[in-house]
Amino acid sequence: MISETELNKIIERINAGDQQALDHLFPLVYQELRQSAHIIRIRFRNQDTLNTTALVHEAYLKLSKADLSKLENKAHFLNLASKAIRQILVNACQSKGTQKRSGEKVQIDDLEEQLRLSEESKSIILQIQDALNILEQKQPNYTKIVECRFFAGLSIEETASVVGSSPSTVKRQWSMAKTWLHQQITAVPV
Description:
This protein is an all-alpha fold and 190 residues long. It is built from nine helices and no strands. The chain has helices at 4-15, 20-43, 52-65, 74-94, 111-114, 119-138, 140-151, 156-163, 167-187. The model is unreliable at 96-113 (pLDDT under 50).
């Protein structure tokens, strides 16, 4: 396991514009991202076509194209990854080109299309997305907490580190956000 000091040196290299440093950071957080994607997969009924590896790799591709020059720490990177995972799932739900491919090799840019979700899962993800868009206008910090907890599978302590709050504050806000989201989602006619 890498020390926090070594990890921060890699982040400093990324901030200095060293694009190859991301290639060093990603393997260090890969297992955590895989666990997050696996948790999401379980939440959506362990569907075989919601490929954990594809989800993590697509998140990496999105992050590798992003401007990471202001990356603060590992927690900040995991927060960005949670946003990427959220967007990948939403894009997969909104994608029109989700017809099955038979034996055709899939290009790496087409990984979002590999995430085939049931109509029920698509509906839930899109309802969550709509509710999060509203919540972001009212309570941006709550949205960050939902992204960290729901989409990245971070613990209360890890989420507190990402959002810069105490674990007790995050726990309270997470509870309020879940309640608010539940009310929003159950109010939407199916």
